[in-house]
Amino acid sequence: KIPVILDCDPGVDDAFAIVSSILDPQIDLKLITTVSGNVTVDLTTKNALYLVQDLKSKVPVASGAARPLLRELEAYEPWFGESGLGDYPDASGKLLQTATDDNAVAEMYQLLSASEEPLTIVGTGSYTNLGLLLVEHPDIVYKIKQFVLMGGTLSQGNMSSVAEFNIYYDPDAADLVYRSGVPIVTAGIDVCKKALVTFQSNDAIAKMGKVGLKLADLLKKYAEKQVAGYIVYDLNTISYLLHPEFYKSEDYFIQVQKTGPARGATVADISSKNDANVKVLTDVDDAKLNAWLVQELSRLVQ
Ligand code: BDR
Ligand code: CA
After folding, report:
1. Which atom of ligand 1 is nearest to the CA of 9?
2. Are the C-beta atoms of 179 and 272 separated by less than 8 Å?
3. pLDDT tens per residue across span 198-227
């Protein structure tokens, strides 16, 4: 089993990462931590708790950073509705569980310290909690096996012509992560745009019980629609972790632009004069990804 901490800001696409990591028997999901991003951290935490509850999972949820490391909270137009997860929370009834408040970094630290084997940290929000962990607990960095992150772009951005949201939102934290020396794999905009969840797959997901129906509905309402299907950015972290063979990658030395008009850009040094710090996913076998996803979510009704 792959021991994993999932740091996220759900988020419709984060929800797909959460659900598949809870359902997959090969993943040992030890902790979900939340961060502000798509919406405020109280809402991303609530959304994570609803998903955990609906899946009858026992995975603990710890809420984390309420704002970026060195910046004030900036309000962006929410991509997934005011709640961050459409009407998912309203349609789910009463929330019975709570999160350990503002405790994400402490919980991560505790888990890493106690674990005999190094843990994978999956990040599908901005990297504020991860940056804090690196700065506050440098003694434990050797216990992080790898970061598998959604973020960045080598071509077009979605916050500016050059910047992707998770990096743009907290570029200072992203910079810390990229410089950490921990092995990093990124699913950026480039590969995520190729990893479309087809309409046919989504129709199949809609038939997978209450949660399947709600997830499919969220994609229909909120995901970026392309000719052949929906972009579900964050899902690619979990699918990569389980099936790296679905993906092609290239290793680059990448630096994060922290300020100015290129804030949030992930600039790759193609001269290769520096040692690579990031494995960037560049292509995906979309058919295999879809077959895997449908199979994975069919566990909702097993
Ligand atoms: C990323 O930004 C967020 O809004 C999504 O959840 C995803 O993590 C895509 O740029
Ligand atoms: Ca996200």
Report:
1. 6
2. no
3. 999 999 999 999 999 999 999 999 999 999
Instruction: Please state the three-class secondary structure of 41-82 as a single string.
Output: HHHHHHHHHHHHHHCCCCCCEEECCCCCCCCCCCCCCCCCCC
Going by alpha carbons, the residue nearest to atom 10 of ligand 1 is 165
> Cis peptide before 11, with omega less than 30 degrees from 0?
yes
Please answer whether residues 43 and 81 qualify as being in contact, where contact means their C-beta atoms are separated by less than 8 angstroms: no
Write the residue with the smallest CA distance to atom 2 of ligand 1. 165
Our CA angle for 232, 237, 241, nearest 5°, is: 140
Instruction: Give the pLDDT confidence of 39-81 residue by residue, as tens digits.
Output: 999 999 999 999 999 999 999 999 999 999 999 998 888 899 9
Q: Whose CA is nearest to atom 4 of ligand 1?
A: 38
Distance 193 CA to ligand 1 centre (A): 12
CA of 81 to the centre of ligand 1 (A): 13
Residue 36, exposed/middle/buried by CB under 10 A (0-12, 13-18, 19+)?
buried
Q: Amino acid identity, residue 63?
A: S
pTM score of the predicted model: 0.98
Euclidean distance between CA atoms 48 and 133, whole angstroms: 20
Evaluate whether 204 touches 293 at the Cβ level (below 8 Å): no
